[in-house]
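Figure 2 data, in text form.
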Amino acid sequence: MKQVHVVKRSSPFLVALYFALAIAVVLGWNASGFSQEYKQIVIATGSPFELGLVDEFAKAFQKKYGGVVRCIKTPTGPGLDLGRHGLTHITMGHEREATARFVREGYAARRIDLMHNYTIVVGPSKDPAQIAGLTDIKEVHRRIAQAKSPYLSRGDGGGMNILEIKTWKELNINPEGEKWYSVSKKFMLASLLDADKNGQYHMLDSSTWALHKAKTKDLKLLVKGPANEYEMCLVNPAKHPHLQYNQDLAEKFFDFLIGEEGQRIIADFGVEQYGEPIYYPAAVNVSR
């Protein structure tokens, strides 16, 4: 399994480097041009890669079909931007409005529900904002703001960050600049560990928590919110003709993930090691 890490978006130089790396992945690393026999596809996603699920997909797919599956680890928003620029064959993300806009713009040849986990909020065991047991994410954020309790935002343009921004807007609250509000500009695991270190509330997905909660010292799962639904898009090669190369392999990978074998990988992932599902497949007939 090959990977290119996402870089922070705050620096124009780093953004340029990020897209340069993405181009190198799509076109292959061979400076003299790649052989027609060299089959590779690029996936853009975040937590499913960070937590190891994409590796499981890749191992099973490559064993069956050959080729190379590469991944650019990126939050949902930047991942869709990679698709807009023709720098990935497939996107996986969990922000429906952003994905719907991507589809309306004509960048997706195919779109489908792939799996889900849950939106959760963790926080200090003393729970100063008294959010334990709530299920309404808006009410959770209202109480945190009202109590001025320390809160850590990822601020990375990912699906969870998009949901957070939307929630503050619906509450007519602007937390930026407030002493109790911080932004990490980091991915999920790093942000979770920062929140634990600093005693902050933090919103993330249930999968990251299930795999890494043992690394925290004073955070508790306080809120289990709505399903966090992952959608997968096959980027439209009509928008970017160079994606026609290996399009057949990308389509096979797309179909593999939504077929019985791919959905079974989702259902089984992490259960033996962690004692609970990490993701839940969209196909009901393979659910645990």
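Caption note: Residues 154 and 184 are 5 Å apart (CA to CA).
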